[in-house]
């Protein structure tokens, strides 16, 4: 025995009649499909349901297995009567933790991270309660193991999913894995996360790829498209996909709709036969992608990368190469260095006016600051260096503007000022599509209220990848 099926289920509380009332009629297809999942799980006679939620104790650097009494309700959504309690599969939990440790995957128990410190209650979240509400209508007698994904690389989440399968097989258990996952939150004007035409594009692509169980194509989804979609469950999906690694899978989309501006998909995935594992291939593709990027990096990015690598490994700032372009050696400008790791920001520090004798020195200083002094992150460790990608923005001199009408978030960066407080936002950032969004973020960074009398400046950048 091992993982006998995977399912994709959404988690909007409005699906539940006690919460949504007459509004549930607008998601009838989703409700019918969710109930069909419940019937299928009953027929599978699963020993354990593993459910992966985006709304539990999600940490940046680790998967978290719930380790508290498995009780929950929809009281916070006005339906205290919708409540449930499950028995945890402690045996499977122990086996997963042991195997994950052997594979050097970072997995923690919730009891080991003091949830109260993060304002997280020790109760089942709606990412678990809503799907299990429909499963429990039909299936019973199973144990539950809820998991919150970490903000980890997709490949690592896939590897963790494979670990669930390995643990189930080692224990001879029949396990079902449910990816609790809403898709784009930006499908229509007035949607919860605002509107983007790329929201529907993301959902269409992902649903089609799930129906074909095309894991490699899912791995190739453009990061900008994912960001623009405003999804909340792609990482849940990656864990579920990994739980079916090494299997030929029969996939079926049971329903898809998005009447409230959020994409709701219900789908089933049944392993039918063995096939070659994709795990090594996924890791190799990630490594090759970074390697190709480095082969094509220009002198600006190469200097930033080599400076940080030398500083982290040797504790010194390397000499500036003599063969750099003339503008790097003679020109002066503000510079921002941005560092990402597996698509997530790892550090970003810059100067909007020149502070060094040339652009090359500005890059070196800000590369070290971005990697080692950004207060949002721990300093970069030597083992992280092969996984980092860099970009360098060279700024024009800021100029004052008297109206937001003279801004364009794709072309201009913005600076807001009030007294000694100031905030800056670079142009052409993923997910920042309007002047209003751009100014709002800059104001928050500066600690300036929108109703204060602040000043605006704009600048342009030349971005180097």
Question: What are its keywords?
Answer:
465 residues; alpha+beta; Protocatechuate 4,5-dioxygenase, Chain B; Glycoprotein, Type 4 Pilin; Dna Ligase, domain 1; 3 domains; eight-stranded mixed β-sheet; four-stranded antiparallel β-sheet; 18 strands; 35% helix; 24% strand
What is the CATH architecture descriptor of the largest domain? 3-Layer(aba) Sandwich
Q: Multimeric state of these chains?
A: single chain
Number of helices: 14
The CATH homologous superfamily of the largest domain corresponds to LigB-like
**Could you say what the CATH topology of the largest domain is called?**
Protocatechuate 4,5-dioxygenase, Chain B
Q: Which geometry do the CA atoms define?
A: globular
Structural class computed from helices and strand pairing? alpha+beta
Domain unit count? 3
- Rg: 24 Å
CATH class category label of the largest domain: Alpha Beta
The biggest beta sheet, please? Answer: 8 strands, mixed
Tell me the strand order in the biggest sheet: 6-3-7-2-8-1-10-9
Q: Please report the total strand number as a whole number.
A: 18
